[in-house]
Design brief:
The structure is a homotetramer.
Chain A lengths: L11 H15 L11 H8 L3 H13 L3 E4 L3 E4 L5 H23 L4 H17 L1
Antiparallel strand pairs in A: 1-2
Helix pairs in contact in A: 1-3, 1-4, 2-3
The structure holds a DNA duplex (15 and 15 nucleotides).
DNA sequence: GTGGTCTAGACCACC
DNA sequence: GTGGTCTAGACCACC
């Protein structure tokens, strides 16, 4: 049972995909696992079934899932899948973060310094 | 002349505030500078004047600007203002980044490692 | 059901805030009470809903109310809230009164004497 | 040369009358003094001459001034005039103050106590 | 139904 | 020209 909090920074179908990806990265879902039916998932998420359908379609397109007629939608098999997804997500996060820090005038050293500073502060607590 | 691209992740007035803050941090705007009039800024941004006014009012509330009736809205004087804003913005970015990285299963060392790795890759290019 | 008579000495939204504060001081409203919805209150006061919203937003900013999305706007909990508001309102009244009496040439003793005189006169009626 | 700061709590002509009355009470103006010409006064106050005319007309109606054709407008003679005006103004202030304090739930004792408290606080400074 | 945002536009005071 | 207030009304998200 996946939980989601939707915001309006992205279309909901995109946020659903992110949730599935995060679950994969964290091991909550694994390759071969069956996803909820579109209808059930829509009910869980209190979302229109068409929205879930769009997410499922896109995930299949991305090579993340495969749909077996009459059986449901499954996370695709493949040992490298999780690492791949995780790599992409981390890379996107890190890239966006660097872009934003630079837009505030930080060079590489300052970016690292700010992160380390923050982590140290938390460590002391 | 400040540029803005609005998305729908936040109200427009909030994005206007962010633009002004960024301009301050980058030195495009400085304490004492006059902001565009509400009407002019609204025209530049292709936004309703009331939306700009909401942003200006909130900025005044935040201590970022001061308004002189009939003369306009100005970035507040005060040497520490820019550093304060910059500190806040960096801190927010860094905090959010750390939260997101952890939600993907990264501990402190991995967070640092991912940043450094990315920066090195870029350096080689 | 709160009543209001608007004059033009202050913006309407400010007068709405004063009405709510007075109701709190007099016990017509209590911490935790729900205020009328923006739409209802606007209808009662024969005022635009945006004007009520401005008042509600400012009251939230002042720490007087809190808003629960989709549920309404409520007087904030907190035992000291009413005393605080009452103290502020009385203090403002008294200060302004003293300033005005002095602008007519009254010293402290005369101010007191005038008040006492007036109260005694009324007592005899 | 009388100074005025106008607000919008009352029509400007009424505020002009108050200014003249205050000047009388404070001795800045005395019975028999000539007021500025309507034209001059309007210029000083940056106000429409008709507004001054309305104020002068009302003051004459109130028995405060008299106009001598071709000579101007004068504060009326009469030893009790100033005391009368002063009495009225103080009385209005005090009455309004009492009404407002009661509207916040204060009885006579509390009204006096609040005034005395405030005056003592100021005395200590 | 609730509040939140935004537009379009009027009218005002102060400069 | 500048900001401040207000109206009328649309559209949205959340309940």
């Amino acid at each position: 049972m996946l939980k989601v909090e939707f915001d309006n920074s992205q279309p909901i179908y995109a946020q659903i995909i992110t949730v599935v990806k995060k679950a994969l990265v964290l091991g909550t879902l694994s390759p071969g696992d069956k996803l909820p039916s579109q209808r059930d998932f829509a009910a869980q998420l209190k979302v229109n079934p068409n929205t879930v359908q769009r997410a499922y379609r896109d995930m299949e397109q991305l090579g993340l899932t495969e749909t077996l007629r009459g059986q449901g939608t499954f996370i695709k098999q493949g040992d490298k899948l999780v690492d791949l997804i995780k790599g992409e997500m981390l890379d996107d996060l890190v890239s966006a973060f660097i872009v934003e820090m630079r837009s505030l005038g930080c060079d590489d050293l300052k970016i690292i310094a700010h992160i380390e500073h923050k982590l140290e502060l938390e460590g002391e607590r």
